[in-house]
């Protein structure tokens, strides 16, 4: 609604996981660097955890976007899958139509593909989002995928991404074998208050906002207070505050606009 008024190329505060809008806080940059290192070094299992709205899916997409040429990738967004379905989902996302419906045939197909990749000097990475919701049986099947290896190389690198409950799941005795195979563990934290202004500015400039379109420091402080450092909450507040500024006819988002956003979203925050 306000894109034309603010001369924006696109919406700056969408809550979709667009990696172009990823703000490189210290925690997000560390997670991005560690996960890329883990994939490129063939570390096998890795985890990425963080509270709801902290940017896990965005980081996952950014990791996949920045992998070197010759890295095949799959991003599984639906964790409500059976053991066989999860193998078929990985095959499909790797661009391989499953040759059969039974699990053994699918695993053999996946193993053959991964060995061909290794022969060509290629790699494969699989990210499973919302992994805290995987069934115990599905987690065990994912663990068994780590057996697809040679004497020297892990054929597939697997990142389990999820909410903090994932860490609790992995502490369960029945998942100890999976837990022991995790080589890297990353955690996303909330943005510190001092980084919220830079985060807002980053998203505005990425969306093509001209210099005069900005948030007043008092508006930034209010967004920081009620956003609690969670990118998704900050985005929601900023979007509503920009709408208030548009209705008011102002190119700068002021404290009154941010306060109006807080009041309108109070029951949702």
TrEMBL record:
MF-aspect GO terms: ATP hydrolysis activity
Stretches assigned to the AAA+ ATPase domain: 42-184
InterPro entries: AAA+_ATPase (IPR003593), AAA_22 (IPR049945), ExeA_AAA_ATPase_DNA-bind (IPR052026), P-loop_NTPase (IPR027417)
Protein's UniProt name: Putative secretion ATPase, PEP-CTERM locus subfamily
């Amino acid at each position: 609604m306000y894109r034309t008024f603010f001369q924006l190329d696109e919406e700056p505060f969408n809550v979709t996981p667009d990696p172009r809008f990823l703000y490189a806080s210290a925690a997000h940059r560390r997670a991005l660097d560690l996960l890329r290192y883990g994939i490129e070094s063939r570390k096998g299992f890795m985890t990425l955890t963080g509270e709801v709205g902290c940017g896990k899916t965005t980081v996952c997409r950014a990791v996949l976007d920045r992998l070197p040429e010759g890295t095949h990738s799959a991003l599984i967004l639906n964790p409500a899958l059976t053991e066989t379905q999860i193998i078929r989902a990985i095959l499909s996302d790797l661009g391989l139509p499953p040759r059969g419906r039974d699990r053994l045939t699918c695993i053999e197909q996946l193993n053959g593909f991964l060995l061909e990749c290794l022969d060509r000097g290629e790699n494969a990475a699989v990210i499973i989002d919302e992994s805290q919701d995987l069934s115990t049986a599905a987690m065990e099947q994912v663990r068994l995928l780590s057996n697809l290896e040679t004497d020297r190389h892990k054929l597939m690198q697997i990142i389990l991404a999820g909410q903090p409950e994932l860490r609790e799941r992995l502490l369960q005795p029945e998942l100890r074998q999976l837990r022991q195979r995790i080589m890297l563990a990353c955690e996303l934290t909330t943005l510190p208050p001092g980084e919220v202004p830079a985060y807002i500015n980053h998203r505005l400039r990425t969306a093509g906002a001209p210099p005069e379109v900005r948030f007043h420091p008092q508006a930034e402080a209010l967004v920081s207070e009620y956003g609690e450092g969670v990118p998704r909450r900050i985005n929601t507040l900023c979007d509503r505050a920009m709408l208030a500024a548009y209705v008011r006819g102002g190119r700068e988002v002021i404290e009154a606009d941010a306060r109006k956003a807080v009041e309108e979203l109070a029951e949702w925050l």
